[in-house]
Amino acid sequence: MSASTEVVPALLLERMILSAMASGVLAIDGELRVVFVNPAAEQLFGASRAMLEQRPLADLVPDDSALFDLIRRVQLVGNSVSDYGVELPLNRSVRRLVDLHVSPLAERPGHCLVVLHPCSVAHRLNHQLIHRGGARSVAGLGATLAHEVKNPLSGIRGAAQLLEQGVSRDEHPLIRLICDETDRICALVDRMEEFADHGPIERRPVNIYQVLEHVRRLAESGFARKVHFQAHYDPSLPEVDGDRDQLVQVFLNLVKNAAEAVPRDGGEIGLSTQYTHGLWVRIANSSERVELPITVQIEDNGPGVSEEMVGHLFEPFVSSKRSGSGLGLSLVAKIVGDHGGVVEYARQARGALFRVRLPAWRASNGSSER
Ligand SMILES: Nc1ncnc2c1ncn2[C@@H]1O[C@H](COP(=O)(O)OP(=O)(O)OP(=O)(O)O)[C@@H](O)[C@H]1O
Ligand SMILES: [Mg+2]
């Protein structure tokens, strides 16, 4: 033991260690009330110690969450239990991915100690990569439907148009109905066909500023005519290693969602770019890692993504809109994934924030190092 630790009383030393820990530590009593929090826990919950201590844990975390399951198990069997990569709504319902460890406090029957360890950004991002399986299923389904549905549908449409000449004027709306509905189904199948894999993407140096400005112009002259755009671009950003047209598709889908979410009057969308140092992500099912220094953010002042949608956002066919196909974000996740990048959603105090992280083009070897 060093000279400096010898003079610090044991209790004070323990407090110092708990204060210095990067993991959130909570002590919970038999009635599931919080009786102690360390500074890291205060930060995770976004509230002070005075606000947290003596409060029922259920005020902070939903009582049907994984944390309560673990605590009940510890109280029942008396052993420590852990769970990894659990999504918990913590600070003002922001969902955080954490590793959870719960152990009994031997000296205080019924009490337990909860350690919440936030997963690293890289771990969180890897978590996003699992959405890619869904996109693959859509690609397969799209190819089948193109063959089995689209071809017969064009026959039905053609037959309806032929009939139009022989039926009375009163019945023309029925023919129109057949044509409109077949067009709608064909358009849906066309969108599913966009998921098809056409081999590795054609990588070039892409100026992301130009991509975003192109998307902004398209939006302003079409679906987002009444929306006010704010742009903050980092002028020193390197070029992205990617396919320009596909990246346009990504940001067009994100901006369209934002435009559909903002209020009719006073709608605002923010586009921004920044350089992120030292963010490496492991490629799924591989030991390779890729650096993602280019961050693009799309923010809006709509209501944000509803609680029940958050965990399923990037899955295909998930939509809260009456005429939505729920394919936009799934396609975004697929294209970003094909680029080796990641897309994530973050709730804000006001509105939604989507963050896309992409690799940079490296001129040294004609392509990025990966
Ligand atoms: N900026 C946003 N604000 C609030 N909710 C959003 C936002 N972006 C996406 N969502 C939610 O995510 C769902 C899925 O989005 P996605 O783009 O995949 O499908 P969609 O917009 O419903 O349909 P499609 O894009 O096929 O027309 C939306 O229905 C909506 O509930
Ligand atoms: Mg959409």
Walk me through the topology.
Blueprint lengths: L2 H4 L3 H11 L3 E5 L5 E4 L1 H7 L3 H4 L13 H12 L3 E9 L5 E10 L7 E7 L2 H8 L3 H33 L7 H22 L10 E3 L1 H13 L7 E5 L7 E3 L1 H18 L6 E8 L4 E3 L6 E3 L2 E7 L6 H4 L17 H11 L3 E6 L4 E7 L12
Helix pairs in contact: 7-8, 7-12, 9-10, 10-12
The chain binds adenosine-5'-triphosphate and magnesium ion (MG).
Offer a few descriptive terms.
single chain, five-stranded mixed beta sheet, 370 residues, binds magnesium ion, elongated, binds adenosine-5'-triphosphate, alpha+beta, disordered N terminus, 40% helix, disordered C terminus
What features would you describe in this structure?
- With 370 residues, the chain is an alpha+beta fold.
- 40% of the residues lie in helices and 22% in strands.
- The chain contains 12 helices and 14 strands.
- The protein has a 5-stranded antiparallel sheet, with helices on both faces. Strands 7-9-12-14-13 form a 5-stranded mixed sheet. It has a two-stranded antiparallel ribbon with strand order 6-8.
- Helix 10 runs antiparallel to helix 12.
- It is elongated, with a radius of gyration of 26 Å.
- The two termini are 46 Å apart.
- The site of adenosine-5'-triphosphate (ATP) has 22 residues, from helix 10 and helix 12.
| Ligands bound, unique | adenosine-5'-triphosphate, magnesium ion
**Helix/strand order:** HHEEHHHEEEHHHEHEEHEEEEHHEE
Distance between the termini: 46 Å
Unreliable runs, pLDDT <50, ≥5 residues? Answer: 1-5, 365-370
> What's the total number of strands?
14
